[in-house]
Amino acid sequence: MTKKERFDKVFPILEKKFGKAKAALNYETPFQFMIAVILSAQCTDARVNIVTKELFKVVKNPEDIRKMDIKTLEEYIKSTGFFRNKAKNIKLNAQMMKEKYNDKLPRTIEELLVLLGVGRKTTNVILGDLWNIRQGIVVDTHVKRLSNLIGFVESDNPEIIERELMKFVPKKYWFEYSHYLILHGRDKCVARRPKCLECEINKYCKHGQKLINK
DNA sequence: CTCCCGATAT
DNA sequence: ATATCAGGAG
To answer: What is the pTM of this model?
Structure first.
């Protein structure tokens, strides 16, 4: 079975299961969304939402961050981990957005990557979630793990994985592909203890195959 | 490659 | 105690 044929088997199952994909991160403004995605690095979105519930009461735009003391910002976001780096990056970005982007979030990969703490994954999330721009595929820890388990890719490198996926995943599904794998990764294919017996796609997965052969 | 780093499930 | 969580920079 080719990867494309494999995709055609697996994707409809996930599509039926999850339907319309929507971000789990809470926000009101694009700038707030950028902050939320930066905070989500190596942290659960549930934790990010707890933190941003308070932070976003006082932070709506870059100016609010610029006038906020960095220590205050660190206190707000401490529980998300990596808080010193994240606070520093968010502060620098608020400054950079004023100088380069007229206090607005840019809409191209190149311009977004200039911002600190914004890499390939964050860029794809922002473009896709905020403006429905599909220039790439989000490869986070879940997409990486599940794509390997299902046999779509054989790599640990997110950039290689993204390139391989783009070869056989139809462009119209780039956005949904990531969302479904992330949702399924949180629901059934949890890294710590995957629930293979309940998994809807276990016959297409390396873990699931082992289970069936026992 | 290492470092950043707290919260949580197991 | 340890692995893992919508990663990124040096």
So the answer is: 0.93
Question: Are A55 and A122 found together in one domain?
Answer: yes
| Residue A12 Cβ < 7 Å to strand C | no
d(CA A48, CA A39): 6
Give me the A residues in range 52-91 that sit within 7 A (CB) of strand C: 81-82, 85, 89
Which tokens go with A163? Answer: 């390139």
- Segment A66-122, tens digit of pLDDT: 999 999 999 999 999 999 999 999 999 999 999 999 999 999 999 999 999 999 999
Q: How far is the CA of A66 from the C1' of B10 (A)?
A: 41
Number of folded domains in chain A? 2
Which residue is the nearest neighbor of C5, CA to C1'? Answer: A43
CATH number of the domain that residue A89 is part of: 1.10.340.30
